[in-house]
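Lab notebook: predicted structure, single chain.

Context: the supervisor wants predicted structures on file for every construct in the current expression panel, including those that have not yet been purified. This is the next one on the list. No modifications to the sequence; it matches the entry in the shared construct table.
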Amino acid sequence: MPKDILNEREFELVNIVGAKLAHNQRDLSHQMDMSLGMTNMLIKRLVTKGYIRIQQLNKRKIQYILTPKGFAEKMRKSVNYTLKTINSISLIKENLKSILLPLYNQGERIFYVVGKSDLAFLIDVVFKENSCVDVQAHHVDDFPKGEVQGTILICKEIKENELDVKGRYVHLIMELAKNETGGLDVKR
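Prediction complete. Output recorded below exactly as produced.
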């Protein structure tokens, strides 16, 4: 690894210093769940690399400050993380589309979305973006009791052997975890 690139622990320390979540080495050590000696070594390394600087406040007290280089690195990594997250959401939406649109094209219009999550929200987005205006998506916390008309879309972690579903369902988390969605597994 090149000298100027931050490893995970160094970046964590830069984030803590940047957010002013710690006031001394002992606080930093607790925040990072690391020994005081290891924290001291990490601070010295980041000072040498130019990501943080130490300011003496008085005889006994010092302050850790992000340098412009430290702030720039923090922003660069944050932007990269955000872009990766956006790409991941786009990929999930595409995979959801490959699961939901065939059901829609087969005539399915009633869906019970089990689980309140971001995945459940993305289902609504996929239907809207693909002009599926006559879809009824009922968002529920638990599985509907008895036989249901429509398809149940499971959007929460649950093991297959714990499923107590009467009717047609798709375990979306399991489907999205597959590499290829070519073999959609709709169960009864």
